[in-house]
Structure formats: structure tokens, C-alpha cells
Amino acid sequence: MAKRIGVHLGTAGGASKSVERAREIGANTFQFFSSSPRMWRAPKVDPAQAERMRTLRQQLDVNPVVIHTSYLVNVCSQTETVRANSIAAFRGEVERALDFGADYLVLHPGSWKGLSRHEGLKLAAESITRAIDGLDCDGKVTILIENTAGAEFSLGGSFEQVAELVALLKVCAPVAVCLDTCHTHVAGYDLVSDEGYATTIKLIGATVGFDAVRVWHCNDAKAPLGSKLDRHQHIGQGTMGVEPFRRILNDKRFAHAAFIAETPVDEPGDEERNVRVLKSLVEPEHAVKEKMPASRPKTTRA
Fold it and tell me: Which of 138, 226, 268, 284 is most buried (most C-beta within 10 Å)?
């Protein structure tokens, strides 16, 4: 199975254009916003765009497709108005994901400022449950809880918090996990040193579980380890360097996952350059193993 590597793309000219754009820059997966990430109100999905996206994905083998939830959504806000708006907005996100046929919908749980962490966790689960009530998501779209950069009051700043929220939601929603390399790094988890990587990955396995990690957001960091500052940088040009990405891309425990960059677009071509860097880090042995069954079929002993 080909490694799934892509980038977050804009939707100028229609959302379905992103599928073609992904292939043009060498990607076979991508992420996009289904509406403006800075506005509560969102237009309805154009059925023609949705159908064209489904057709192009099949023709060009672009999978999975990921939608990132609006930054305004805060499902654990202590403010009832914000929470009500967030529930309505998140329901809209799920509906659009279903319309587009997206595989995953990534969510930042939000901030529990003014509450206890336990209260924030409980509110997040309740809000998401209310938002998807009556929607048929099973087997269609999976909600991915993303780890955050570890800022004070931010829900999901530890793997344990992500695992807790996933456990609460499993009874009522198709849910899994998205891990962000920059968030992980600035939250204080070491992915850079050999020993640190081994310790961090072991902790991921013990909390959220390897199988639950469906997407890695591959972002280098502008800020140092443990800084709690969420500032993305181009792959290999930040405080992490290329080695953590090489390890993750070739780690068999994440062979099922998609790897999507959310790196800055400072100059034309940056999206393609970051995809190219990630693809260059995939070890050749993976490609060889894909071809082996065709040239050297396995035999079974009697």
C-alpha cells in the first residue's frame, strides 16, 4: 500500500479543485477547510462540487480526505453562547464532511478556562454528542481528536487527555486521533532524540493506542521543546529537524496512517516543497516490499 502523504490545501475555484491540486504537487491525500475557519456561518455544500470531488478522488486515487474544523469551535467553553454556537458549527462541519464524502474530521477540543479540566472534558464530550445527534456518521466519517500545544486550559495538551475524550465519545460517535508533530514537540514530548522518540511513541501506544492514530499532522516547529507555542515551520527548517519525520514516516506502528503537512505558505511552491521533503524521507525498502509479492510470490509448505 502506497504511503499517504499530503498537505493542507486551499479551495479556490471550488473544493473539488483541491483533489487535482493535490495530484499536481505529488500528494495522494490532503486536508482542507469546508468553510471559512474564522466565521460561524457557512454556506451549504454545492452538490456538483461534492460529486466532482468524489469522482476525482476515485480517478486519481487521492485518499483519505480530511476536513479541519473551524478554529472558532470550542466545545468545552464555559460560556453558554460560545458553546451553543460551537455545537451548531460543529454539526455543520459534520454535515459538510458527509456531503463531501470526507474520511476524517479533525477537531481541536478547545479551552476549558474558568472550569476544572474534568468539567471541560465532560462538556466537550456532551457538546460533541449533541452536535452529531441524529446524524448517520458510522462507516462514513470519523471524528479525529487532535492533541494541542499544551497551553494552559487547552484540552488535549497531553496524550492522556486525548485518550480520555476519545473513551468518553466512543459510545456515541466514530472517533479516533490526529497527532500533530509541532504540538507534540512544544507540549514537551521529545520526538527528536533517539531515547526521547522511543519514550514518546511508547506513551502514545499506552494512552491513545497506535491503531487510533489515523492522521499525523507533519509540521516542524518554530518554538523550542516544551515552549507551549504553536508556531508551524517548514519540514526540516525548525527546532525539530528532519529526523523525527523520517522516524514517524517509516515507523511500522503508523503504517496505516496518513501524513499531512500544515506548513506555512510563505512563497509559491511551498506546499509542493514540503510534500516533496516528506516523500524523500520514506525509506526505499517500503517501495521494494510493495513490489515483492508480484515478482516473488509466497509459497506455502504442505
Answer: 226
- C-alpha grid cell, residue 42: 457557512
CA atoms of 114 and 123, how far apart (whole Å): 12
Indicate the CATH number of 4-295 among 3.20.20.150, 3.40.50.1000, 2.60.40.1570, 2.160.10.10. Answer: 3.20.20.150
Tallying the residues shown for the chain, one arrives at 302
d(CA 49, CA 11): 11
CA 129 to CA 144: how far, in whole Å?
A: 14
Half-sphere exposure of 105 (CA within 13 A, CB side): 32
Residue 301's pLDDT band (cuts 50, 70, 90): very low
- Distance from chain centroid for Cα 270: 19
Q: Supply 75's cell numbers.
A: 466545545
Q: Position 199: which residue type?
A: T
Active site residues: 38, 68, 71, 108, 146, 180, 183, 217, 230, 232, 262
Residues 58-75: pLDDT tens digits?
999 999 999 999 999 999
Q: Which three cell numbers stand for residue 19?
A: 483533489
For the chain, the structural domain boundaries read 4-295
220 touches 237 (CB < 8 A): yes
- The CA distance from 264 to 54, in Å, is 27
Residue 292 has pLDDT above 50, yes or no: no
The letter for the amino acid at 288 is: V
181, 188, 196, 288 from 223: Cα distances, Å: 12, 11, 18, 37
d(CA 228, CA 280): 29
Give the Å distances, CA to CA, from 42 to 34, 72, 88, 90, 91.
8, 12, 11, 11, 11
- The pTM for the full model equals 0.92
Per-residue pLDDT tens digits for 234-286: 999 999 999 999 999 999 999 999 999 999 999 999 999 999 999 999 998 64
Joined grid coordinates for residue 250: 517509516
